[in-house]
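[job 4471] stage=fold_predict status=RUNNING
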Amino acid sequence: MSRPSFNSEDSTIAAPVAKQHPYQFERYGQIIHDNYAWLKDPHYPTVDNPEILDYLKAENAFFEQQMAPHAPLTKSLFAEMKARLQEDEQAVPWQDGDYLYWWSFRPGGQYRAWYRQLRDQEGNDQLLIDEAAEAEGHEYFRMGTLAISPDGNLAAWSCDTNGAERFTLKIRDLESGQDIETITEVMNGRVVWSADSKALLYTEVNENWRSYRALRHIIGQDIATDREIYREQDDGFRISLSRSQDRQWVFLETGNHQTSEVYLIPTDDIDATPDIVSPRKTGRLYSMDSGQDKFWILTNDEHVNFRLASASFEDPGNWQTEIAGSDQLYLTGLHAFSRHLLLSARKAGLDQIILRNTDGKLEFIAFPEASYSVGLDHNPSYDPVCYRLRYESMVTPPTIYDYDPDSRQLHTLKIQEVPSGYDADAYTSERLMLPARDGVLVPTTVVYRKDFKKDGQGKLLLYGYGAYGISIAPYFSTSRLSLLDRGFAYAIAHIRGGDDLGYQWYLDGKLEKRWNSFHDFTDVAKGLIAHKFTVAGNIAIHGGSAGGELMGVVSNTDPELWGTVVAEVPFVDVLNTMLDESLPLTPGEWPEWGNPITDEKAFSLILSYSPYDNVKAQAYPPMLITGGLNDPRVTYWEPAKWTARLRATKSDDNELLCKINMGAGHGGKSGRYARLEETAEAYSFILTHIKPSS
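[job 4471] inference complete, writing structure tokens
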């Protein structure tokens, strides 16, 4: 077994060395050696192999030992971060029917409590869900859905108590405050109530954590009588439920990363057979809402940046263009209200909120900064007076606005408080367009204190993701201030693979173009060096999940650039995972990465960058790697195997630490302060391992 060894002179734990159990396989004439394959427990998702558990515990013990000398800094960072959070923070109440709803934290509390009150009975608060009480006795707790029945009497709510993202769905009687039913323990996603509050629809995951079917449950009846209304036959597709803004329809959507299909169910007849809108076509995505007596559709069928179309209730698959696709405007979302459509979009890489009047005229809401992030907040009503928005930037804390469409004014409702103090004038942000090696300009957002010196010797943390068409918008972080106030600049590389500059930006970083994402990241780093922000070796890099894959690739290709690497739940065993169709996400991931089982070119491409398969006998920077034992997205053995191979192969003596959360999943620890502890650890690692400025 792999156990920690001890130095007899000082009783310290030596770095764990995992045994190598020889294993190899051949594919397309290539021999792949994987001597750490044994770290995948054959009983997964149960992990009970003593040798595996001993190795993970040894890594955790080594992590604790090596970080112990930095405990004062970690504690100081945590104290700073905690002091910037408002202990009794409360959401701005939002109206839904006769009630106002909100959440709040109690002073010192890790979790939210959810409340409501009748609009005309101020002060008569009703507690709906107390997350802290529900979390008692659990190492991990995460609230899932909370859906109030149309008559206001019942709440469907779900929670996950181990990080495996299999949620228990319960029905709570709001008059008594007691849970009266437990419907399922393998739910994932939203529920939708019937219009008469007598039934609801929900989705379940199978043993491979694939959301594969939707069921109808009648309140008060045995769950054995729940009727399956839809089952997805394609292992690569996942299903989800949502409700139209006008509350007339349930949208049952199934799809993967490149193809979608939607079915309709009337909320006043949820036992009706789901009615398909338009059959799936590979490469076509579409999403819908309902309002103003018609359906509204966003689809990429005619333009990569999507068009807006409408359709009648009688013929929902006959789409008439309302806003044609455009190279300049990337449409990302829609909500149909009684007086307007609210469109989310991106123009020149910046978020936009657009009101489309019933006469078809478009109004772009203006915001005060040149670089920012904005989106819709709580807007449950179909006919609101104002529209609720959430706005922030790298220097502006999250701000809740009500936008009045009649006066065209933004009314500030809340600015996130920083109790320990925050002076926005002490910081500045800029947006750069930095050249990649193929000449494409990559947007990069940088924030730093105004006293930061661009002398070519500064320290910088560079963050990246670059996958699944997920954009990383300029956002505010109270935790980040601890780095900025210690002389760091912080940059986000908006690399290809995200959709920051439109859907084509995403397509240009996936499948056969995947290397663009990795090259963009290193080229952004070199561009920041050219702009005198920093120097090679003074750059800390950080990414998680697919962003952890990015960390792994660039650590292999350009290790001399980085001063430290933090890779959280990193997707680094890419080839083996994409070859194992029994894993939860693999079939649905093939459109993103390629299918190496059937496609030799995809096999060769993935093998060319898969971080685990490309570890070299070279010097690597100090590295902190994390994982979660219950993670269904990036399984625990990916970071564990990567760490083992790095430790056995690399030629340097730089720190290599691996921490596996034994009671959590993809998101790490639960609770707002527990999450801060992990951020403080990561920042402490960065601050103590990056080389001092000259």
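[job 4471] summary: The chain has twelve helices and 38 strands.
[job 4471] exit 0
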